[in-house]
Amino acid sequence: MQQIQDIVNGKKYQIVSYHSLLMLFRTCFTLFALCLFLFGFFPIKNVNVSFSTKEDIPSRLLNSSLDNNILYHRHIGKLVLVVIDAFRWDFVETPEYMPYVTELRRSKKALLLTARCHPPTATMPRIKAIMTGSIPNYVDVAFNLGSNKVLEDNLIHQSVENDLKVVFYGDELWLNLFPDKFIRKEGTTSFLVSDYTEVDANVTRRIGKELKKNDWDILILHYLGLDHIGHLAGPRSPLIPDKLREMDGVIKLLHESLQKWDLEHSQAFPSYLVVTGDHGMHDSGSHGGATLGEILASLLLIESTPHNISLSGKRPEVSQIDLGATLAVLLGLPIPKLSLGALIPHALHRLSDEQYLFALFYNAQLIANQFLNADSNGGSKDCFILYLKAQHVHELWLKNRTEDLKILAESLYFNATQGMSFSVVKNLVTFNMWAIVLSCGILIMVLFWTMLVLQSFSLRTACKNLSTITIFLLVGSILHAVSLSSSSFIEEEHQTWYFLWITFLLLASWTNRPIGNEFSSKFALVAVLLGHRFLRKLNQTGDKWASLPDISDWLEMPEHQICLTLVFLLGLVGVWTSLLGLKCVSNTVDKVLHFCALLCTLFYRNDVGDIFLPYLPFISSSGVKEVKAFWFLILLFFLRSVANIQQKWSMKRAVKILLSILVLVSTLLLQPSNVILISYLVLSSFTIQAYFKDTIKCSFGHVWLGTVVYFYQGNSNNLATINVATGYIGVEHQNLISASLLVLFHTLTFPILALLLLWLQFAKEPITPLRKADMLISLNVCFLLRLLPLTVYFIVITIQREHLFIWSVFAPKLLYETAHSLICLVMMACGCLLTFVDSKLKGGV
Amino acid sequence: MFFSPQEDPHSIQVIKFYCGSTCLYFPLLTILILCTDLMYKTGRFSFLPYLGLIVLAEFMKSIFINNYIKEPEKLAGRNAPKLGGTGVRKWFSEKRLKDFSKILVLLGLVTIGYFIIAILFGAELFSKYEETFMLSSLLMLLTALPPCLYLGPNYALGAILGDEPSSLNPLSPIFQHVVRITLLGVWLGAFVIPLDWDRPWQEWPVPCCVGALMGYVAAHASALIQVAIPRCLTHGIASKLKI
């Protein structure tokens, strides 16, 4: 109370600088708490680098000794593993799509299974899971962009150790994961998502030559085209059947050559062909989350001779991690050390009973060792006792070979393996509760501190007569924070925001009269209202309704390219008008720079083929040159502005420079249909400022606006909606840091821009101490609005950590929430610093 | 959630009768709708007869209040704009016809207004017109019909929008109160629609209609309680909060 009086009357800049420093301290404190929570929730797993060897294959079962050379050896000749990216479980079901596979299934040469993956359903963790048989850490998804070498024991390592030659063609991710393991290799980049023919043609071209050579044992192919089509057009695209027919052709080619091979060379063991998807596909076409479409992939086991397994109706379902161990048994290799998968019985029908039970025993022993390591008193658990029982029955069977005993041993081994594996997986996740509780405590403390500060600042202006709209803003924010405790509300969070936003607008028009030009403000409000209705249909997002067709889907169809071009041009015009309207560009040179940057964006989209302009020349097919020119122009503008601002410091100018640079960059990064959102953001910001002069309401409005437009853009709380392709715009070489920065900025563009638009208002000249206090109040409000959901969510997730959906719904939301907070906190820290510097400079005068 | 009623005994009597009668029959109707399959029909044209029931009840109430609750002498002189005040003799007159047609147009406009607002809030734009229309009509009946009946077409809109704290009729503060609470009910009801629970009561516009009915009951009940309990208590709180 006294302080605000001082600011108003005594023009004490010191108090402003003091408070901005305090605010800076709070921000950093929160950042610390954030990191602490992440550390506690996603513990970094120590990599176990020990490897299995031939000696690990058991030679004793309880009291009887076994000859493991006879019981455990190679059963298949050549192995071809075809990984089709995003090969969803139901893609094989339509006979017309894959005629050859259907024929194989009818003639009992192929067996169709469903493979269930663990989330996150990104390619790298899935490949790791297949090859190591273990479940990679959740954080691995963060490193999906820059894949690093697999250090754990894996199937490829075992093959190479045991003199099997491996050849690989396909996604170059494998080359990063398993460097120097393949005798021949060629990687295709998953760089250009828009290319879905070349990537696969490059792989298929190699098969013919390989099938003529005799120097390899394992051939791995990874086809990316299907996944690219999914990202581009979704699982119901007409491109999908064509692609599946192409894949069917590849399978036909491989199978026929292998059959011929087996006849000609009459090897001791027949060849084996495995076709699997690394993960499925979301109904919207992307992947990463945990919906059934994403976690269920097809798994085809194809042989040269018909099998004799009778299948009862339903498709058998196995876990994806089972594949690694099963292939190891078929190849007679030691099973990778960290494998947790059970053996797939359908694949092992060629083993004799003795060999089969031995393989089950070996696999169970491996998992039992891990089980005892993870759980020190696991020896008394049910599943371990089952394992001991199974051994006894197995030994009994060796002496008295009856069918009953065999079946009993088999089922005991399976149950024991499954139980122990489940328990190990559960124990893999250990939370650091100290860190979690401490960080929650810090956040709660900072939350109350901020509330107190805000109260002392604004008691006079706001709290005495709470208007309907202030109450609504407070209640709305609290309702949203509380709604995060339900997984359904998290999945449909955008709906909550759309609802709150439209209520806010209608209440504003009902209770408030605009300040200044009444007609234009009312007109703008109507435009914002109607725009909202249109834009919420631009990108369907969330979970339940995400697969509904939306406007951007319609625009991205090849036959509607002309409309997309028009929308994009409209968006560019909107950006240009917004920049002029915000007075971000004042002098001619800057105007030219901005205009050229926008032109670069236009040329880039034309070259990449997103839009089509008849008279525009092509410059480069990948658009790299334009993007380079774009960055050069931005740099030029930045340097000019820095030189300008050094002569005469002005906070307004600094915010404007930042704003215009970020607007330009987001124009480049955003999808062509989304560029129009920038002008909506600016228009809405104008409207809010016209209706509310009060700092607190204005800040609330802008923070909500940023979030609403963030969801218009198509974001959701599912990791699948992150557009990874933006990380590679105009880049020639993969660079993890720049790619992740660009993706981060692209995802959170609108909250960032909304904050800048808000601050621009408070940086207006002439700067009086009162304006400065406004800036501080606004900073505090934004901080509070970020802190409130964050704190509530941290508490919720701590309580719900055993929830069924913790990894599929809550953990992705946690990643989003922390990324959002991280960016906002850094921006607020910059805002505090700016205010501090400004008040110091002004105070000195 | 308070309102500031007029303090004279006549107004209190009118309010007590108005809210009391609603509190008698409307909860019964709501319970009937909630406990039978009728709830799932709120978005269908087949629900129209039940809306007719509401209209009928509202008409009977208005006739009773306008004709049988005697106004004190001081108010009788004032030119109170109401429908039934002129007595039975001039049952059909040009003014009445004019008022009647005005009311129809106004109610139509209000329905269209609710329709547009529902669409802005996210109701389907190209389908489900029947459902959206039924919600708008229900809201129109609950919020706009009573003001039209008691205040006449010229003052009703002001009462709905809450523009003027009209002292022309003892019921006008009630109308504003009812509009607010009913719309709050609809607003809260809409929260469950997008969630993935796949229940039949999540269908548009079922939760909104239920919210409206409950809000309507809550508004009248709270108003009744407020006028029924000692004046000094509520008056103090209401003036302090000024909601």
Automatic annotation (TrEMBL), chain A:
The organism of origin for this protein: Thrips palmi (Melon thrips)
Name the UniProt record assigns to this protein: GPI ethanolamine phosphate transferase 2 isoform X1
Pfam (any one): Phosphodiest
Membrane protein topology class: Multi-pass membrane protein
Family classification: Belongs to the PIGG/PIGN/PIGO family. PIGG subfamily.
This protein's pathway: Glycolipid biosynthesis; glycosylphosphatidylinositol-anchor biosynthesis
GO terms, biological process: GPI anchor biosynthetic process
GO terms under cellular component: endoplasmic reticulum membrane
High-level lineage: Eukaryota, Metazoa, Ecdysozoa, Arthropoda, Hexapoda
Protein keywords: Endoplasmic reticulum, Glycoprotein, GPI-anchor biosynthesis, Membrane, Transferase, Transmembrane, Transmembrane helix
Transmembrane regions: 21-42, 431-454, 466-490, 496-512, 562-582, 629-645, 657-683, 736-760, 781-799, 819-837
Start and end residues of each GPI ethanolamine phosphate transferase 2 C-terminal domain: 438-831
Gene name of the record: LOC117642895
Subcellular location: Endoplasmic reticulum membrane
GO molecular function ontology, one term from the record: CP2 mannose-ethanolamine phosphotransferase activity
TrEMBL record, chain B:
Chain segments annotated as transmembrane: 15-35, 47-69, 103-126, 138-162, 174-195
GO biological process terms, semicolon-separated: GPI anchor biosynthetic process
Pathway the protein takes part in: Glycolipid biosynthesis; glycosylphosphatidylinositol-anchor biosynthesis
Source organism: Thrips palmi
Entry membrane topology: Multi-pass membrane protein
Protein name, per record: Glycosylphosphatidylinositol anchor biosynthesis protein 11
A cellular-component GO term for this protein: endoplasmic reticulum membrane
InterPro entries: GPI_biosynthesis_protein_Pig-F
